[in-house]
Specification:
- The chain has helices at about 1-25, 50, 70-85, 110-120, 135-140, 170-190, and strands at about 40-45, 60-65, 95-100, 130-135, 150-155, 160-165.
- The protein has about 190 residues and is of the alpha/beta class.
- It has a six-stranded mixed β-sheet with strand order 1-6-5-2-3-4.
- The longest helix is centred in the N-terminal third of the chain and has 25 residues, at about 1-25.
């Protein structure tokens, strides 16, 4: 009789918490934690066509559109500023833009980048934005299920994992770049690669 009571008590102690946890999770009793600010991409975007010959680094990627408006300028400024704000870890992160045959590549000239910094009232730093050229067809294939007008955080294996929106308004763009910086810092803290 004592063995049966001990067995039932043992089962009760181990099974009851599992049942309570399942009920709590299914009824959304607990908030599901999310530590990233950007939109998690599922499935990830394979950036290998653009980055296969590059060294393994974390990247902030933006695709330059046909017409570079305020939203485009703010995105280019944001990836450069996040890179600069990384401080001693800036060698682990690369700001990168992808251009196509129809992209407004004139925005990437030193004069235009300097103008963007002046308009943003930022301290001008060395412009270290890398550029990769792809065909429009390749870009469309890479982004077939995702809106291309965003800033993407790409891991060291060339997987686009997080997407951050771009903004025309300067203040919104600055706030968004702070969120990008937060995400990149968390990823670098967890990663030993790149």
């Amino acid at each position: 009789m004592n063995n049966k009571k001990a067995l039932l008590l043992l089962l009760f102690v181990f099974i009851l918490p599992v049942i309570l946890a399942k009920v709590a999770l299914e009824s959304d009793f607990f908030n599901k934690a999310a530590t990233n600010s950007g939109e998690l991409l599922d499935p990830v975007i394979d950036f290998s066509p653009a980055l296969s010959d590059q060294e393994p680094l974390w990247r902030l990627v933006y695709v330059v559109p046909d017409i570079c408006d305020a939203q485009c300028e703010n995105a280019i400024f944001a990836i450069q500023q996040v890179h600069t704000a990384m401080g001693k870890h800036s060698s682990r992160v690369q700001p990168l833009v992808i251009t196509t045959e129809t992209s407004a590549t004139d925005i990437l000239s030193e004069a235009n980048l300097a103008r963007i910094y002046t308009e943003q009232n930022a301290v001008e730093t060395q412009h270290t934005i890398a550029t990769v050229s792809l065909s429009k067809k390749n870009v469309n294939e890479m982004f077939k299920s995702v809106d291309v007008n965003a800033i993407f955080i790409v891991d060291t294996l060339n997987n686009g994992m997080l997407k951050h929106p771009t903004f025309s308004d300067k203040e919104e763009a600055v706030q968004a770049s702070r969120l990008i910086l937060s995400d990149v810092r968390k990823l670098l803290k967890l990663s030993r690669i790149g």
